[in-house]
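Blinded run. Sample ID left blank on purpose so nobody reads anything into the name before looking at the predicted structure. Input follows.
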Amino acid sequence: QVQLVESGGGLVQAGASLRLSCAASGLSLSSYNTGWYRQSPGKEREFVAAIGRSGGSTYYADSVKGRFTISRDNAKNTVYLQMNSLKPDDTAIYSCNMGPNWGQGTQVTVSS
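Blinded prediction complete.
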């Protein structure tokens, strides 16, 4: 059974940092490109960042470029999203995606 479990969210003040994790089971991380997405109330889900299967290629939404870093540890079957200089606009539920698989999400709330 494929399962993606996100963790690391929380309530922080603007300017703080968080690191999100997405732990995969039932599949091999190296078989998929992996993406992070976020959705805030009343808005469509939006792309945040993605990383290629080997970790050699990364992609970011303009809104997070320079502040967020995506990485992966295939040995741990885990993908990370390091989020620095957080802003209130970053408040959302963050979910990871691998192929057809989605996690349940982790809440990130940034207060001003």
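Unblinding after everyone has recorded impressions. The mean pLDDT is 95.
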